[in-house]
Design brief:
The complex is a heterodimer of chains A (about 70) and B (about 425). Helix content of chain A is about 25%, strand content about 30%. By secondary structure, chain A is an alpha+beta fold. Chain A has a single domain, classed as Alpha-Beta Plaits. In chain A, a hairpin with a 6-residue loop joins strand 2 and strand 3. The longest helix of chain A has 13 residues. Chain A is globular and about 30 Å long. Chain A starts with a strand and ends with a strand. By secondary structure, chain B is α/β, with parallel strands linked by helices. Chain B has two domains: about 260 residues, TIM Barrel; about 90 residues, Translation factors (Elongation Factor Tu (Ef-tu), domain 3, Beta Barrel), CATH 2.40.30.10. Chain B is about 25% helix and about 25% strand. Chain B has ten helices and 24 strands. An eight-stranded parallel β-barrel of chain B has the order 1-2-3-4-5-6-7-12, surrounded by five helices. In chain B, helix 4 links the parallel strand 4 and strand 5. The longest helix of chain B is centred in the middle third of the chain and has 19 residues. The termini of chain B are far apart. The chains are: A alpha+beta (about 70), B alpha/beta (about 425). Chains A and B meet through loops of A and helix 3 of B.
Chain lengths: ~70, ~425
Amino acid sequence: MPNIIHYRNRCIGCGICYELQPELWRMSKKDGKATLLRAVKKKDVYVLELTRHHVQKSKETAEACPVRIIKVN
Amino acid sequence: MEKVELLAPAGSFDALTAAINAGADAVYFGVEQLNMRARSVNSFLLSDIKEIASRCRKGKIKAYLTLNTILYDHDMQLLRGILKEVKKHKIDAVIASDIAVIEMCNQMNIAVHISTQSNVSNIEAARFYARFADVVVLARELTLKQIEAITKEIKKKKIKGYSGELLKIEAFVHGALCMAISGKCYLSLHSQNASANRGACVQNCRHSYTVTDTETKEELLIDHEYIMSPKDLCTLPILDQVLASGVNVLKIEGRTKGADYVYTVTRCYREALDSIAKKNFSQEKIDGWMKELSTVYNRGFWEGYYLGQKLGQWSPVSGSVATEKKVYIGKGTKYFSKIKIGEFLIEAGSIKAGDTLMISGANIGMAKEKLETLVVNGEKSEQAVKGDKITLPVSAKVTSRDKIYKVVSTIDA
């Protein structure tokens, strides 16, 4: 299954990922940025292996991110 | 005439130092994502506030933090965190438009400047905001006559700001303009889901467009102009009239611009202001400053709406029409502080004796100089290429983050 990758430090906290996919995202109250739930931190990047039923929706989320810091591959 | 304040943009430490060296009275900057340049790659972090405050104090200038995006509930804690740092490091004011920021600043006794995003266009709006703020940045679409009416009324009615002093009025004097009134634009949000009002503008307005007749499918390229891309504001030729309108603070736009831009623009306006104060502001001097201003990034100049123009003047190109450009050639490697010599590694292109070089760095700000003698790998030489190390006199400490550029004329090219 593909991974969803979040380059979190460039997040501007617009909240669209959480709007589209509340099952995978939360808005951090601490720093106002999006947090990818259950993701593993690798250096500054957060990675989560997707289950099949999350793939399509995740691609739409990646497409919707205004600063293009969400990738699915 | 009261002394007006020249306010320069600082999007990086290089630009901050350049602003101080060029004679700014104050700078404004943003941190993290809650400012109108959130997309910018070189934005400051929360942890940079301390260093910014310290550099500004040393440079004897004021520092203002921009916190002027739309805010959501999930931003409140970050907002509080930023304001705590502002308070702790004695940043002079916060530039705000959202009521949450204004309210929180008032509670924490932090001075507020009302952002141009609030679109203040009349005396009653200014009077309203005076209850919370000390400075109001007016909408950029007002004429000087309208501005004068506002500043006169403030004096006449003694409209005082939050601090108890007369309310101050700030106006933009130089830099990029937006096609939308007071930056309230939804074009970028519409096309790429990137809200300009969260600092994520993708600048669709700077592209060229065609109009298609849906019946015939015929495409019309409109007037060969970028009809949504205004030329840049430049009030230098009318700066005496701008001052006569009674404004207290003059703002230069450009937090995404480099140290060379900030230095050149700030310097020109500083000299022009000093010249007006000495009553020797002349056409000849204006011509000289305009030539200088044309060397850095610009989309062509006009004096904005200040003289009563109803429609914007559109840019002839998508990018810059600057008469000079900088070409990256390398980075700093060493500094010999006793003899004030900097060493740079050439990473791209080549340079020869007689070239004009520009250094950008957090300590130097911006320095531009024609290189009469070129010293390559310790010996006098005619040319330096990739892999070579060059040494030259530099007045401030060079670090590995300093960049060196070759300045090239775009007219000959």
